[in-house]
User: Fold this.
Amino acid sequence: MSRRFASNYIERIRTRIRSFELAGARGTIRDDIGPGVRAVGLLPSITVAFVVNAESVIILRVLYGGQDWQAALVTEDDED
Assistant:
């Protein structure tokens, strides 16, 4: 993958995440992962996990869509 392609890809992700500012209440609610957690696919291989509150959208993780992203959101404290 070329450096230019990678930079453009990252910028596409950033641009789409910035659009959450206008319409944060999107995606699928995943309370099974955590209270208020939402997930949405951005690009063919990117999943974003986030929480929306009254003032902002909090991005929890930007993940490769092929990985077990649900498990990636579980912390060691959650496993106790």
User: Anything to note?
Assistant: The chain is about 30% helix and 30% strand.
